[in-house]
Design brief:
Elements (H helix, E strand, L loop, with lengths): L7 H17 L4 H7 L5 H8 L19 H13 L7 H15 L2 H13 L4 E4 L15 E4 L3 E11 L7 E7 L8 E7 L5 E6 L11 E11 L3 E2 L5 H37 L1 E2 L2 E2 L4 H29 L5 H26 L9 H9 L9 H10 L5
Parallel strand pairs: 1-4
Antiparallel strand pairs: 2-3, 3-7, 4-5, 5-8, 6-7, 9-10
Helix pairs in contact: 1-4, 4-7, 5-6, 5-7, 7-8, 7-9, 7-10, 8-9, 9-10, 9-11
The structure holds flavin-adenine dinucleotide (FAD).
């Protein structure tokens, strides 16, 4: 189905971003996969071209483009080239907004220009070895010492963990109140802040997912985001948008895998005829294309609601749940139609399959999404 049109300016933005990807990303993808990390240079180049934090106000060096469709375009284009290592959307629309929403003017002036130029790469560190879905179980602590906090603890599975220069780190800030969590801006080079292993993963191999350690790190009060006891509330505010991003990416990634499969089945001959001519293939492809089309309509509606400030956590959860499960089904069928070739690294469907598995786990697992939706159903 024809999608609701983007504006002329947004269509031009898409063209420009696509050209950027073909020049600065596609030629490096294989090398990044081998290295297990992208070049930090790609963030700087994205910044140079105006693709980082483009929502930021002009006075902070941004373009003031708050309409989520600009980010949607970038998420879709990255997915359509199968790129899962260059985590610019996390930088742009997951971590950057914490500084925008909860940071002081001084913090915005100090940090945003570097994030916009790509000199400063962002990450967010919530998850710990014993606390993922259940964030209240986190153990990292930040002790109040007046003009500074002393941060201790460890975080794991952190995206941009090696490349990151500035992390929003969640830690408990009041021993008498287990729900008091603060968000602390931890900078590269702070004494006591170190990185552990770059973790080896099933998929998304060019993404530098890592462990972070904090040992008596002195975090100046000037690096606390907002109220140091309201971090939980702040994190919850960002989650609907994070899930909107995740759902947007999953549907575009499903479309990418569908396209790879379509190309393959048209060419592949079995028992004397193209694989695309068998009824099983035709029915499965018809089913997938229907589900992707319907999911796309829901993505676009959620974007509209988000732009109007009305996207509810439940609707964002519905999108994330359905889109990630759909992506899982599409990549699985895609591999099946490729036969043995689908299991070979040299076929992009194989990477699309392993890259997809995590989308049902991170940004809130499918089970957590169902919990959020169920809570809104008045089931008693
Ligand atoms: C590649 C990758 C990148 C990541 N990047 C980041 C990052 O940048 N920053 C960050 O902070 N974290 C990051 N994470 C962590 C991610 O958010 C967590 O892995 C996720 O929240 C799940 O937490 P967990 O791994 O502790 O699993 P658990 O929470 O231990 O879950 C295990 C299983 O239990 C299920 N479960 C949990 N609670 C319930 C419940 N109430 N009811 C029913 N079932 C339940 C889950 O759905 C899951 O199936 C990343 C993870 C990965 C894999």
């Amino acid at each position: 189905m024809q999608r609701k049109p983007f504006t002329e300016e947004q269509n031009m933005f898409r063209e420009a971003f696509r050209a950027f990807l073909h020049k600065e990303v596609v030629p490096h993808q294989e090398r990044w996969l081998e290295a297990g990390i992208v070049d930090r240079e790609v963030f700087r180049k994205a910044g140079e071209n105006g693709f980082l934090l483009c929502w930021a106000d002009e006075r902070d060096g941004g373009l003031g483009l708050r309409d989520f469709r600009y980010e949607q375009i970038m998420i879709e284009e990255l997915a359509l080239i199968g790129e899962t290592g260059f985590a610019m959307n996390l930088h742009n629309r997951i971590v950057g907004p914490y500084i925008d929403r909860f940071g002081s003017d001084e913090q915005k002036q100090r940090f945003l220009p570097g994030c916009i130029s790509g000199e400063t790469i962002l990450g967010v560190a919530m998850t710990e070895p014993d606390a993922g879905s259940d964030l209240a179980g986190m153990r990292a602590t930040a002790q109040d010492r007046g003009d500074h906090f002393i941060l201790n603890g460890s975080k794991t599975y952190i995206t941009n963990g090696m490349l990151g220069d500035l992390f929003v780190v969640a830690a408990k800030s009041d021993p008498s109140n287990p729900r008091a969590i603060g968000l602390f801006l931890v900078e590269r080079g702070m004494e006591g802040f170190s990185r552990g292993r770059k973790l080896k993963k099933m998929g998304q191999r060019s993404q530098d997912t890592a462990e972070l350690f904090f040992e008596n790190v002195v975090v100046p009060r000037a690096n606390v985001l907002g109220d140091e006891t309201r971090g939980f509330h702040y994190l919850m505010q960002g989650l609907a948008e994070e899930r909107l991003q995740a759902g947007t990416r999953c549907v575009a990634a499903a479309q990418y895998a569908f396209g790879l499969t379509l190309d393959f089945i048209r060419e592949r001959k079995v028992f004397g005829q193209a694989l695309s001519q068998y009824q099983n293939t035709r029915f499965e492809m018809a089913q997938m294309s229907t589900e992707i089309d319907l999911a796309q309509v829901y993505v676009d509606r959620c974007v509209e609601e988000h732009n109007a400030g009305r996207l509810t956590p439940e609707d964002a959860a519905r999108l994330k749940l359905f889109a990630s499960e759909l992506q899982g089904r599409v990549v699985d069928k895609g591999v099946q139609f490729h036969g043995g070739a689908g299991y070979m690294d040299e076929y992009p469907i194989s990477r699309a399959y392993t890259d997809a598995r995590v989308t049902r786990i991170f940004a809130g697992s499918s089970e957590i999404m169902k919990e959020i939706i169920a809570r809104s159903l008045d089931l008693k």
